[in-house]
Amino acid sequence: MADQDARSPVGIEPPALSVLRWDEPPGGPAVVLLDQTRLPSQEVELVCGDVPALVGAIRTLAVRGAPLLGIAGGYGVALAAARGEDVGRAVELLEGARPTAVNLGYGARRVAEAYRSAEAKGADRERAAGAALAEARALHREDAAASARMARFGSQLLAELLPEGAHRLLTHCNTGALVSGGEGTAFAVALRAHREGRLRQLWVDETRPLLQGARLTAYEAARNGLPYRVLTDSAAGSLFAAGEVDAVLIGADRIAADGSVANKVGSYPLAVLAKYHHVPFVVVAPTSTVDPGTPDGAAVVVEQRSASEVTEFTFPRPVPAGAEKDGEASAAVGAQAYNPAFDITPPELVTAIVTEEGVVSPVTGVGLAELCARSSQVTIS
Predict the structure, then answer these.
(1) Of 118, 183, 256, 370, whose CA is between 20 and 30 Å from 288?
(2) What pTM, to 2 d.p., does this model score?
């Protein structure tokens, strides 16, 4: 349980996190990020003055989470436009930074289209860059609004699925304000349940190997005064067996046309456990995460990350400019590692997908297409 001192006073919400913002210092425009690799020990901002710097921040997970990556992609293209650089090349660099996260490419392409549309209408470079920035800001606002709607729909779904009282919710990775223009996806649902007095316990998977749960979700839970406990990923099975989980809430980095969900590795085992123990498994994600061009889970390109993330422990701490982070070895010298960033959960294991447009349950390709057809975020081919 979180220490009482770590909680917000009852009835008082903490100030909003400044996770990502556009800035125009004397040295020129920049995208300023809260460096998530330093959390929870340090709240440090990272200034990205060009697209390669932003790509580096995305690859090192200084900025992460599907919706926020879409916002970052949009601002990245606006940054290239403001600097007079090749917007098409900026889209390519940003899209390639993390191939599984469909929102990243969506945000970059959307802002690039706004830039090209302004050019086609006769705008000079400066005005076209202004149009790109306006579109990036619109995307940011829309994501915040979508977060609030997902929280409302998710809360209503939990009330229907779990009518008997306060909920014990298990979540994986990090899905709060650190991944969103608003209060998040899955975490926003838990936060709303807490504010409504219907959250008994938030179980927080550590989420190895980079501990986004222990470092980031616990940070957000403590900041907002939620009752929470951290557990190792491998302890989830015993938690289910003891009857201590009422529902699982996760986010998504890509949802295929058939409803298959790509999310942080470790999500699929939770879905299997939930199915066996008759516990609802709920995915919360904006419709921009749905990729109609990916027919099913087998077509999702899963990012493979460095073996060092598994074979070494790297703790958040200051690193001199130009130096690489060093870690303590946790495996035998020369050990190889299997380190996929994501796994795929098939639709038959998903109880419901909650979006800003409503809820899909049961999860089918037809139901998902019908819901997304109501959204301006997705084009169904």
Answers:
(1) 118
(2) 0.88
